[in-house]
Design goal:
By secondary structure, the chain is mainly α. It is built from 9 helices and no strands. The longest helix is centred in the N-terminal third of the chain and has 12 residues, at about 20-30.
Length: about 120
């Protein structure tokens, strides 16, 4: 299960001070002792979503895969720049904005290359 340490949460909180939905997500991650999956499920429930699996965050992240795995966003994430990625994903309206940060953090924790690798597979 991907999770954040308190120091990581503090770091992201300082970067995302101008993003109220991200701060709310970080608050929920703290309540869930850093567990991204639990926090994402709680946040989803708070906005009327009905998560039906324990790996719900993974499934949500997959819905964003084509967007996240664009070369420019991969480069941003690889350099630790999450704000451009968050801004882009919020414009897609794939899910409520409050769920974007957990998705981005999930991808970072999973590894951007690993997350995007299914899009690089070719059928012969």
């Amino acid at each position: 299960m991907p999770s954040l340490t308190l120091s990581e949460i503090t770091y992201y909180r300082s970067q995302l001070a101008d993003y109220p939905d991200a701060i709310t997500a970080l608050d929920e991650i703290v309540v869930c002792d850093g567990d991204l999956d639990d926090a994402a499920i709680n946040l989803a429930l708070s906005v009327g979503q009905t998560p039906d699996r324990t790996d719900w965050l993974e499934g949500l992240a997959k819905r964003y895969r084509v967007e996240i795995c664009q070369e420019n966003l991969i480069n941003e994430l690889s350099q630790g720049h999450i704000i451009p990625v968050i801004n882009h994903l919020m414009t897609t309206k794939i899910s409520p904005d409050i769920l974007v940060l957990p998705v981005v953090l999930y991808v970072l924790k999973t590894g951007v290359d690993q997350f995007c690798s299914p899009l690089n597979l070719k059928i012969n």
